[in-house]
Amino acid sequence: MSCKRAAIRHRSLAFALIAGCAVGGAAGAMTKNEYRVERDKEQAAYKSAWASCKALTGNARDVCKVEAKGNYQVAKAELDAQLRPTPKRDDKVKTEKAVAAYKLASEKCDDLKANAKDVCRKDAKANYVAAAGEAKLSRASVDQGVNSRKAVKERKDVREDTSNALFAAAKERCDPLSGSAKSACIADAKKKFGKP
Length: 196
Description:
Layout (H helix, E strand, L loop, with lengths): L2 H26 L3 H22 L4 H26 L3 H23 L4 H31 L4 H26 L4 H15 L3
Helix pairs in contact: 2-3, 3-4, 4-5, 5-6, 6-7
């Protein structure tokens, strides 16, 4: 095969790949009618889940409501991302998932008492900070590039925020201790998370 024929063949293959990607990307988006149908399904599922919470009492009822609302918020974000796919909407899905998980974990902590409740809340906060930071970092990487100044700064900030939240949870675990055991626990936490 001559070089000219090879170049034409590769160019045709490249155009076919580009066309396939363009069609594939458009096929991933849903139509407005599909969106409306799915939105109505999600609203019905939310109302059903909310109604099932009425049979519960106490914190179990609160947990049920928070879970129903969180699932609905995530589903709405996912539908928006399917209707009009963009990196920003993908990040919104990640953020909604992080918020829903945090609110649910925090509500479940209400069943606990004293230090166990405080530790539970600090753990929930640490998980939220890590998940929300990942969504923020993902956005900076997409917008500016993985090694851009903004992405590097975001990575540093996310690591620092996550480390601070994990340190706060570790320190909270030391609270029930006293004397030298508490001092040793706090010293271990500081060492693990590089705190002065």
